[in-house]
Design brief:
Layout: H1 2-28, E1 35-38, E2 44-50, E3 56-62, E4 70-75, E5 81-87, E6 92-103, E7 106-117, E8 124-125, E9 143-146, E10 154-161, E11 177-184, E12 190-197, E13 200-205, E14 211-220, E15 223-232, E16 241-247, E17 252-253, E18 255-260, E19 265-272, E20 275-282, E21 289-293, E22 300-306, E23 311-318, E24 322-326, H2 329-341, E25 347-353, E26 359-366, E27 369-377, E28 382-388, E29 401-407, E30 413-419
Antiparallel strand pairs: 1-2, 2-3, 3-4, 5-6, 6-7, 7-8, 9-10, 10-11, 11-12, 13-14, 14-15, 15-16, 16-17, 18-19, 19-20, 20-21, 22-23, 23-24, 25-26, 26-27, 27-28, 29-30
Length: 451
């Protein structure tokens, strides 16, 4: 009997260990879908899923015709990874590939842009190629400035120019700095839109092909001072005029994020009574500044833009929970309706949108819902589920997250979030405390796989 008892105990402990190992693998798994985008006509979806190790794979699917997923691109994760992919036409995508390399023993971030058809054909490097005589290696592969919604397959790219020269030859390239080119992702034909400028590091377009704002780094004794000087182009002009300065170290000044071509204004953030608020500034000689939205208790920290033109539709901020305020009445109504109609959807995010704004990708989640992607058709009000953010967790009963304030020794109330085990009495339990840096960063309410 004694031998049988120990055998039974060992089997039970082994079963528990297997269950714990499975839970650790399920909760520690990478998100099932890393990025989702919608084609201009709203009939196709592109999505990135994890692969072996740190690898990732891009798939496309023609949802209008009930098609199956088609592999289009893959990255091994050693070292290249797929960061995002965006449709540049109904048949072609541009993707950012990032990697971390070692140079003299130190980690260095490198990026490149590639374009590929939805069926995986015609893969091409879109980032600028460098010659053997380049003065230095460019780690930066460029940035997507404008999708040029009225063009098919062409985009505006921010590109870094590095001078090239050859001893004893008249052939050289003297352009240097960061500029903007119009690039055809099919033929790779490129045309300069904004000449490269030394120390420039940011461009903002109006979503219709006009580059309206440039950010330039200010230096102090040859080093980055942390201050960005922003200049703008008046509508229909090419010359630059002073807009604002923003100090990254103190958070002072106007920091532009987007341009509305209809209002001829830049939206951005600036401090109001000690907290970041949303302002808009007219892009004309008046530079008239208007306070759009602020909160007395927290920073307004996220501008909500949507669609291929990156149209400004609202802002969001985090108190106990992340909240969105929509300036567009249609999206205000839609967000409220979806949060009520979808299961366990306290948090709603709008993703990709078709060119006619009739079809959207919607993400919904909460503290006990890791997230679900949906396809929404405005014309029919039909909502169809697409992908679960964490399919491994289906079937688990997840723990709710509660916002709390903890009084410390000097009486200060420190905000935090409490996650309690499911089905266990919340009394006398041991605790794991996960502090983090701040005050420039914070935790937010929602599902937390680590907790």
């Amino acid at each position: 009997m004694l031998r049988q008892f120990f055998l039974f105990t060992a089997l039970s402990m082994s079963t528990v260990a297997v269950a714990q190992d499975k839970a650790a693998l399920d909760f520690g798994a990478r998100e099932g879908v890393a990025d989702v985008s919608l084609s201009p006509d709203g009939t196709k979806i592109a999505y990135i899923i994890p692969d072996k190790g740190q690898g990732s794979r891009l798939f496309t699917v023609d949802i209008a015709n009930g098609g199956k997923s088609v592999p289009a691109l893959s990255a091994t994760g050693d070292p290249e990874r797929l960061s995002y992919c965006e449709w540049v036409s109904n048949a072609r995508l541009i993707c950012l590939v990032s990697m971390v390399l070692r140079e003299a023993g130190e980690p260095v971030s490198v990026s490149r842009l590639v374009a590929v058809n939805s069926d995986g054909t015609e893969l091409k490097l879109v980032s600028m190629r460098q010659g053997y005589n380049a003065e230095r290696f460019s780690y930066f592969g460029g940035s997507l400035i404008d999708l040029l919604p009225t063009e098919d397959g062409a985009v505006l790219l921010g590109r870094e120019y590095v001078p090239e020269g050859r001893t004893g030859s008249l052939i050289s390239k003297s352009d240097e700095g960061y500029g903007v080119d119009r690039v055809d992702t099919k033929t790779l034909a490129a045309k300069s839109v904004v000449r490269p400028t030394r120390l420039a590091n940011e461009y903002i377009s109006d979503g219709t092909g006009a580059v309206r704002i440039m950010g330039v780094m200010k230096t102090d004794a040859g080093y980055d001072s942390g201050v960005r000087r922003y200049v703008y182009r008046p509508a229909g002009q090419t010359g630059w005029q002073a807009l604002s300065e923003y100090d990254n170290t103190t958070g002072t000044g106007f920091n532009p994020y987007a341009v509305d071509p209809v209002e001829n204004a830049a939206y951005g953030f600036e401090k109001y009574e000690g907290r970041f608020a949303l302002y808009k500034v007219k892009l004309d000689e008046s530079l008239a500044k208007t306070l759009v939205f602020n909160r007395p208790d927290v920073d307004v920290d996220n501008l909500i833009t949507l669609g291929r033109k990156k149209r400004v539709i609202g802002v969001s901020f985090a108190t106990e929970k992340r909240q969105a305020v929509y300036f567009d009445p249609a999206f205000k109504k839609l967000g409220s309706s979806l949060s009520k109609a979808l299961p366990n959807a306290a948090l709603i995010h709008f993703g990709g949108m078709s060119a006619d704004e009739q079809k959207l990708i919607v993400w919904a989640g909460s503290d006990t819902n890791p997230g679900q992607y949906y396809y929404f058709d405005k014309a029919t009000n039909a909502v169809s589920p697409l992908f679960a953010s964490r399919p491994e967790l289906e079937g688990y009963k997840l723990a709710p997250v509660k916002a709390v304030n903890i009084k410390v020794g000097d009486g200060t109330l420190v905000p935090g979030y409490l996650t309690l085990p499911v089905g266990v009495e919340a009394k006398g339990l041991p605790a794991i405390i996960m502090p983090h840096g701040g005050p420039s960063s914070r935790d937010e309410w929602g599902f937390d796989w680590l907790a």
